[in-house]
């Protein structure tokens, strides 16, 4: 397969952009390869600079649930662009998108648009701190909430609950209020909230389905127990649905588990591929935000008309009858197929999905925690990833990312993927 043009662009990019990319995971470093440079995308396929077409399971890391360049979305953006790119003043489209999101999320009574998931989580935590008058927050190891200083904290090897920044450039003091817990380990959360820091925790922020350590669902009743605990302790429960919102179900993970968070963060799908994030929740909490309240949060391009148009057009299509059933059916065909192939080829694998979000680990036992995820066979994943790419199937270039199916993925696309899976796993079984 020809990659010379991508390689040339990558060489060039590295002279002016750190690592040649504008977001680290794109660099393919963890899988030991060089990134593909993309020239266009249509439906379920992305095309690289060498003219190769790949069946895409990344979908721009989540937003492209309709498939790439969906005609309704492209047309909506085209029309909006003809009327000016940004006004820095309110528009009706912002109300329409706010209402659309609110209609699917009963927990959200008011919502503020921002420009990325990072901004959404950062702002939600600020509001939670202001609302409770407390400083400390709990996050889970392996969960990603964007790159705000105090959220860039994970556990070191000896799982510590005190925040140690794991990016250079973050002063220790910036993350001293970040407490770490293990996803799906309710006992530690009880201990931290009730014994170690009673009355000090402003919020618990989590990915209700983890998607940034591979795809890891919550264990039975974990979210329900968190909800009850937060009620008891006066802690704001923030579901970071940047990835899961409108993805695992129309109403996100909160609909799947019937658990109502106090605040929710969004991104990805609600922008239809444009830079959008949002945070929302109960009116009483969101009334803290300026200019209504004393929590400052702003954005020159927030609610940008092109982004609102793309988001609205995407949700309009998604809300048509049967769309979520179709997404779940297609994705179920994929994960069922992978499971069968793993059994047939004797490959230890764990596979799961909810709606159109899926993931697999090269591990024979179920994965519930970050540590278990880290212990899976990444070397095998890396070999597998490279082979899939040769078969023109584009998975996320890391063992610790979820995959996404779009409405543009056909049964034939899934079967083509499964056939590549089977050939490669058979081949690897003899390595
Ligand atoms: N939260 C979650 C759950 C995410 O998956 C991401 C990004 N993948 C973010 C927040 C940050 O979003 P952004 O990259 O738009 O800043």
UniProtKB/TrEMBL annotation:
Source taxon at top rank: Eukaryota
Family: Belongs to the class-III pyridoxal-phosphate-dependent aminotransferase family. HemL subfamily. Belongs to the DnaX/STICHEL family.
Protein name as it appears in the record: glutamate-1-semialdehyde 2,1-aminomutase
Organism: Potamilus streckersoni
Residues of the full protein shown: 1 to 431 of 1193
